[in-house]
């Protein structure tokens, strides 16, 4: 009895004419996502270069809010799996005949991507909206409570109510002012990326 070995583990199947184009595409997308995952580049998958062009409108119509790079990755992966699986059946064909199969395989890959893109796109849209709301929120002008031992002009931490939950922020006081734990202060401006500048409630 022959030992079962998945075709995906046989390099020759990757390089067959019917599969080589998908192999190159999948390799490129895998490298892209690895680089993005490890933070080696600023990653925004919606920056796919289509924008409000006709291609971008079509992608949005057929694939919803899924990032174009994700749609192409899914389509390439689906086409690659199908192409590798077909290698034993078409190995006797001429290379140009095998290459002709890439078009229907790509169409099938796009169909699979469409089925997966809508639920993925909804999740992505919800995450993007939550991130946008988070970035739009500003504590400036709000009251805050000192939670660290003190807040001086060098360091400290305050708590700000954000709807229901509270948010902890690094804080500095204006020069000459110092606040103790439990004091209520007013946030007057942002101070760096995630910090704020605070002052006395009766400063104005």
Architecture overview:
With 204 residues, the chain is of the alpha+beta class. The chain has two domains: 7-136, no CATH class; 143-199, Beta Barrel (OB fold (Dihydrolipoamide Acetyltransferase, E2P)). Helices cover 49% and strands 17% of the residues. It has six helices and seven strands; from the N terminus they run H-H-H-H-H-H-E-E-E-E-E-E-E. It has helices spanning 11-14, 17-37, 54-63, 68-90, 95-100, 102-136, and strands spanning 143-146, 150-151, 157-161, 166-173, 179-180, 184-191, 195-199. The strands form two sheets. It has a five-stranded mixed barrel with strand order 1-3-4-7-6. A two-stranded antiparallel ribbon has the order 2-5. Strand 6 (184-191) and strand 7 form a beta hairpin. Helix 2 packs antiparallel against helix 4 (68-90) and helix 4 (68-90) packs antiparallel against helix 6 (102-136). The longest helix is centred in the middle third of the chain and has 35 residues, at 102-136. The relative contact order is 0.10. The model is unreliable at 1-5 and 46-58 (pLDDT under 50).
């Amino acid at each position: 009895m022959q030992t079962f070995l998945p075709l995906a583990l046989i390099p020759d199947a990757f390089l067959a004419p019917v599969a080589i184009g998908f192999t190159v595409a999948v390799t490129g997308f895998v490298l892209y996502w690895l680089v993005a995952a490890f933070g080696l580049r600023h990653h925004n998958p919606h920056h796919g270069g289509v924008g409000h062009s006709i291609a971008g409108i079509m992608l949005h119509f057929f694939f919803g809010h899924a990032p174009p790079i994700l749609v192409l990755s899914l389509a390439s992966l689906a086409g690659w799996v199908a192409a590798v699986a077909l290698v034993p059946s078409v190995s006797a064909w001429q290379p140009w005949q095998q290459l002709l199969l890439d078009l229907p395989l790509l169409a099938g890959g796009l169909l699979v991507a469409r089925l997966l893109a809508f639920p993925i796109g909804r999740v992505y849209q919800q995450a993007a909206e939550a991130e946008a709301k988070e970035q739009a929120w500003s504590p400036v002008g709000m009251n805050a409570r000192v939670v660290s031992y003190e807040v001086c002009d060098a360091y400290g931490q305050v708590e700000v109510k954000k709807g229901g939950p509270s948010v902890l922020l690094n804080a500095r006081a204006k020069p000459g002012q110092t606040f103790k734990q439990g004091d209520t202060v007013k946030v007057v401006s942002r101070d760096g990326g995630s910090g704020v500048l605070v002052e006395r409630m009766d400063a104005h």
